Automatic annotation (TrEMBL):
Keywords recorded for this protein, A-Z: 4Fe-4S, Iron, Iron-sulfur, Membrane, Metal-binding, Oxidoreductase, Transmembrane, Transmembrane helix
Organism from which the protein derives: Prauserella sediminis
Chain positions covered by the region annotation Disordered: 721-767
Residue intervals of the 4Fe-4S ferredoxin-type domain: 290-320, 380-412
InterPro entries associated with the record: 4Fe4S_Fe-S-bd, 4Fe4S_Fe_S_CS, Cys_rich_dom, HdrC_iron-sulfur_subunit, Helical_ferredxn
PANTHER family recorded: IRON-SULFUR-BINDING OXIDOREDUCTASE FADF-RELATED (PTHR43255:SF1), IRON-SULFUR-BINDING OXIDOREDUCTASE FADF-RELATED-RELATED (PTHR43255)
Protein's recorded name: Fe-S oxidoreductase
Low complexity composition-biased segments: 749-761
Statement: the UniProt record of this protein carries the keyword Transport: no
The keyword Iron-sulfur is annotated on this UniProt entry: yes
Length: 767
């Protein structure tokens, strides 16, 4: 051990003491900050399933690999960071003594191979990620970058450290070989062995490279320790916890049902709730749960959510990524005030800090941050702009794509809940929606007695529940759109006729049916949702009173009703087997109870409804039905779990789009790129929006006048019914009128008089 080694070693140790101290203090502070959120006891267990999910997601990179061009490189960097830590700690000995190696494994050939792979992997992976970031830089005007709004300096710093650490690992190993300290087999050192032949024997170089390897890590610790909002660095630690504590303990993403309204860690009971004490949604950043704060802290700013967001891709102010980072920055800036005991009541008056000088010792910037409204425009100095909040369609693309399981939709709806229920501050169009739901039990404000109008003129009787479920196998939940919206009525009629033809015993509720409450809940009006849902659960439970639980089956045509009945009603005591009509019809085709005989020999593109696809993973049944009908399926570029929203979800069906391009027009433009004869879907909301988009494009000459929007059930009925007549005519011909088919003029969809939503006229980045 010479003077050089001693000097370098002292420098390394001294820097390490400071670095580890800064980092340890930062970890403690970050944990304290995250714990400022509301309690949530639902996240801790069961341990084994959560642990399995964690291991699968990080070891196999199952979610990261959704972006295939990025996944492999990130996988290399991740393992380089985890296992490379062993090489980092080995540097403490190598600085003082170039001959130092870990006991037992230090000279073991497999360990030498692992070091080789770690060094190469981190260098190649780090460089590749930097290139990908450059290739998708927001300065490019011909595309919207998923990195727009991300902190590039922080990202490049992390990637630079990754590369330097990899070079340090390779450098130490190379100089050990050139100096005769190591003599590994070529198979375990296939890069460093040839390089060592070109370098002189220099044991001092081993110590120098070891110091470089060590200092790169220590500088990283200091920088991230002083910047708690550097998510691109902190996710290396917090992502493990964020994945483990994800909402669904079975490993699923936070889609399907919404998180219930929580207060003090317990579901909010409206009958006993006190607005002065209980938390109603999220009106201040401290109203989010600790898991919400962990979400904010874990965001890597990769922008996958942003690249998939329909609002962002059509010029709206909403970026799921920037919404989370704005909440993060606000939370951490306000944290000193909250940790000092600061708290404001609903009127904005201070109730937490007391004394003659209550603000003494609190950072003035934290005090200023505490005055900001969580939701407010620029004039009000709000953290989240209202246009950003209300642009969300709840499509779930952000949640589906997030590699670290951030729960964007739950956080957005929590903020909406506070705005609606406490502030009464929401888009004016929702006033009519809420009023109609409360007074009429449906969004269109129609009378309950008209719920069976869709069945008029059918050549068979539709059974209406009369107090006895009898031998019925299914309750057919028609839904508000299926009962009142003229375009959706055709789907209802088609499904009813197919069930009749297949001899499926079913019944409908008729006037007893009311809205499931989905639009109210997604808009943030939890009170109206609870009112409607409890009423429906009571009715449904009485319908199934004498039916054993395993046979309580409901079939629905609306993807939103499907999601609500299947995923949200169980929390209210409504446990049923709920199937979407495409699933049931597909099963009937497989069982030969429905036999398509006359192929619909046309090119069809299928639009995945968000609440059927992403929220409930029903992708294959509708496509199989399109194929069974004899149509040629042409997929849009964005389909399956990357399908783009139609723009109707999140109660957007009842709100006007006044910013950017209309989402439904964007989706129709994508559909037109497949040159289809028809656009098929499996949701009445999607059907309305896509039809309006087609109408818009037909009016400007971009779409053929013959282009139609149909439900997949109509395609199937065409193939089945015309086959029985031995007349394989195209959907849309006059003969197709019966059973909810196309109109005599050849148009499948025309605007309906009951469409109180108002007719709205009207790319995925894999890098």
């Amino acid at each position: 051990m010479g003077a050089l080694q001693i000097t370098l070693g002292v420098i390394g140790v001294a820097v390490s003491i400071v670095a580890w101290g800064v980092f340890a203090a930062a970890v403690v502070r970050q944990v304290r900050i995250i714990r400022l959120g509301q309690p949530d006891g639902t996240r801790y267990g069961p341990f084994v399933p959560r642990l399995k999910t964690l291991i699968k997601e990080f070891a196999a990179h199952t979610r990261m690999n959704k972006f295939r061009r990025v996944g492999p490189w990130h996988w290399l960097v991740m393992w380089g960071f985890l296992l490379g830590s062993l090489a980092l700690f080995e540097a403490y000995g190598e600085i003082f003594d170039p001959h130092f190696a870990w006991p037992i494994i230090g000279h073991w050939e497999p360990w030498q191979l692992l070091l080789e792979l770690l060094g190469i992997g981190t260098v190649v992976g780090g460089v590749a990620l930097a290139i990908i970031r450059q290739a998708n830089h927001p300065r490019r005007a011909d595309r919207q970058s998923r990195f727009q709004g991300s902190n590039f300096a922080a990202a490049y710093f992390v990637e630079a450290v990754v590369v330097i650490e990899g070079l340090g690992i390779l450098g130490v190993k190379t100089f050990k070989i050139s100096s005769g300290i190591e003599d590994p087999a070529l198979w375990s050192s296939f890069v460093t062995q040839p390089l060592a032949q070109l370098l002189p024997s220099a044991t001092a170089a081993v110590s120098i490279m070891a110091l470089i390897k060590l200092l790169s890590g220590m500088i990283w610790l200091v920088v991230v320790g002083r910047n708690l909002t550097m998510g691109v660095a902190w996710h290396r630690f917090s992502a493990f916890f964020n994945i483990y504590f994800k909402r669904e303990d079975d490993g699923g993403v936070a889609l399907g049902k919404l998180k219930p309204m929580m207060s003090g860690g317990e579901p909010l009971d409206f009958e006993e709730a006190d607005p002065e004490k209980d938390v109603f949604g999220a009106g201040q950043v401290e109203d989010f749960s600790w898991k919400g704060w962990l979400d904010f802290s874990t965001c890597t700013e990769c922008g996958r959510c942003q690249s998939q967001c329909p609002a962002w891709n059509t010029g709206k102010p909403l970026s799921p990524k920037m919404l989370i980072t704005q909440l993060r920055d606000h939370a951490y800036a306000k944290a000193p005030y909250l940790m000092a005991g600061g708290k404001k009541d609903m009127a904005g008056d201070e109730i937490g800090l007391t004394g003659d000088d209550p603000h003494a010792g609190i950072d003035v910037l934290a005090l200023a941050e505490s005055e900001r409204a969580l939701v407010g425009d620029a004039e009000a100095n709000g953290v989240i702009d209202p246009d950003m909040l209300w642009s969300c369609t709840n499509c779930g693309a952000c949640v589906e794509q997030c590699p670290v399981d951030i729960e964007h939709v739950d956080h957005i709806v929590d903020m909406r809940r506070y705005q609606v229920m406490i502030e009464s501050n929401f888009p004016t169009e929702l006033n009519a929606l809420f009023k109609n739901l409360e007074n009429k039990g449906n969004p269109w404000g129609q009378n309950a007695k008209d719920r069976m109008a869709w069945a008029e003129d059918l050549d068979f009787e539709v059974p209406v529940f009369d107090g006895e479920f009898g031998d019925a196998e299914y309750l057919f939940w028609v839904g508000c759109a299926g009962a009142f919206e003229d375009r959706a009525k055709k789907t209802t009629r088609a499904v009813a006729e197919l069930l009749h033809m297949a001899d499926v015993k079913y019944t409908v509720l008729g006037p007893e049916e009311t809205c499931t409450g989905d639009p109210a809940r997604r808009a943030g009006n939890e009170f109206v949702f609870q009112m409607l849902a409890q009423q429906n659960v009571e009715v449904l439970n009485s319908v199934f009173e004498d039916v054993e639980p395993a046979k309580r089956k409901i079939v629905v045509t609306c993807a939103h009703c499907f999601n609500t009945l299947a995923n949200e009603y169980p929390d209210l005591g409504g446990n049923y087997e709920v199937v979407h009509h495409t699933q049931l019809l597909n099963r009937l085709v497989r069982e030969k109870r429905l036999t398509p005989m006359a192929p619909v020999a046309q090119d069809i593109t299928y639009h995945d409804p968000c609440f059927l696809g992403r929220h409930n993973q029903v992708y294959e049944a509708p496509r199989e039905l399109v194929g069974a009908a004899g149509a040629n399926l042409r997929e849009m570029p964005r389909h399956g779990d990357r399908s783009m929203c139609c723009g109707a979800g999140g109660a957007r069906m009842w709100m006007e789009e006044q910013i950017g391009k209309r989402i439904n027009v964007e989706r129709v433009d994508e559909a037109l790129g497949t040159a289809p004869s028809k656009i098929a879907t499996g949701c009445p909301f999607c059907r309305v929006m896509l039809n309006d988009g087609v109408t818009s494009r037909q009016s400007d000459g971009s779409a053929s006048e013959d282009l139609e929007v149909v439900d997949v059930s109509q395609l199937l009925l065409s193939a089945v019914k015309r086959g029985s007549d031995k007349e394989p005519v195209a959907v849309g011909a006059p003969e197709a009128e019966t059973g909810g088919e196309a109109e005599p003029d050849g148009k499948a969809d025309t605007a309906g008089t009951a469409d109180a939503a108002g007719d709205k006229p009207g790319s995925a980045d894999d890098s």
